[in-house]
Amino acid sequence: MNTTTRRTLRALQASTLRLMRLPARVRGLVIIAPLAFYAAVMMLPLASERAFDAVTREDGLIEYAQFFALVACGLLSGTQARRLWCRARGWALVYGAFALVCLAAAGEEISWGQRIFGIETPQWYAANNHQAETTIHNLQGVQELQAPVVVGVLAILSGLSIWGWTRGRSYSTIGRGLYLLIPHPMLLPAWICMIGYVGVLTLTHDVAGTSSSFYIGRLQEPAELILIVGVAVFLAHVGWLERGRRSLRSAST
Question: Which ranges constitute the DSSP H helices of the chain?
C-alpha cells in the first residue's frame, strides 16, 4: 500500500468517525429531555390533579407509553441481534434474549391484556399478586427485588459509561465491542431519574403521610418511562454506531 493510498484511507476513516459522532444538539436533547419531563410530571398536580391522575394511573397515558416503548426496545434489540449474527454470535444471542425480555415486559406492563379484555384473575394470582393481576413482576417477593436489582444494574452501567467514554472515544475502543454494552454518558440523566426515585421512595418509606405516599408512588410511572426510553435510545445509538462500523470497514477495503 503506497503513501497516497494510506492517506486516502486515513481520511476516509476520519470522515466516517466524524459521522458516527452524534450532533451536539442531539446529545443535549437526550440529556435535558428526561429531566424536563420528570420535572413537568412532578409539578403537574399544581396545575391539575385530575390531569396528574389521568397521566400516572394504571392504564393511564404513561403506562401505555411504556408498553409501546418496550415494544420498540424489543424490535430494536431484535434487529441488532440479526445484524450481529454473522460477525458476533455471542452478542447476537445477548441482544436476541434481551429482545424477548423487552417484549415480555411489554406484555407484563398491560397485564397481558387482562384489563383490556376484562379477563378474570386466577385465584392463586389474586392471592399472591400485589395488584391482584396475572403478572409476574407484581408477585409477592418478586416486586420487592425489582428496585435493588434495577438500581444496582443502573449504577454499574453508569460507572462503566463514565469510565468507558471518558477514557477514550477512539474507534479502537469502540471496535472492541464496548459500545454494545456501555451506554453513552448522555443517557446518565435517564438512569439518574430512576435511581433518584428509588432513593426518595426508600427514604420516605413509613415516614410520609398517606397523600405524600400516594404522590411519590405515582412518580414511579414517569421514572419507568424515562428508563425505558433511555434503553431505546441506547439501542438506537448502537445501531448508529454499527452503521458507522460497516462504513469504516467499507472504507478500509
Answer: 3-20, 24-47, 49-56, 61-84, 89-109, 114-117, 123-128, 143-167, 171-175, 188-203, 210-218, 220-252
Q: Can you give the C-alpha Rg of the chain in angstroms?
A: 21
Q: How far apart are CA 227 and CA 23, in angstroms?
A: 22
Q: What is the pTM of this model?
A: 0.85
pLDDT (tens place) for every residue of the chain, 253 residues total: 566 656 655 654 554 455 457 788 988 999 999 999 999 999 999 999 999 999 998 888 999 999 999 999 999 999 999 999 988 899 999 999 999 999 999 999 998 888 888 888 888 888 888 888 888 888 888 877 888 899 999 999 999 888 877 765 543 444 456 788 888 889 999 999 999 999 888 877 644 444 457 788 899 999 999 999 999 999 999 988 887 666 655 655 5
Tell me which residue of 250, 189, 233 sits closest to 9, measured CA to CA: 250
What is the identity of the amino acid at 34?
P
- Reading the block at residue 188, the C-alpha cell is 446518565
Cβ-based neighbours of 181, under 8 Å, separated by 6 or more = 160
Cβ within 8 Å of residue 195, ≥6 positions away: 151, 154, 155, 158
Bridge partner list, 139:
129
Q: Which residues contact 117 (CB under 8 A, 6 or more apart)?
A: none
Residue pointed to by grid coordinates 425489582: 146
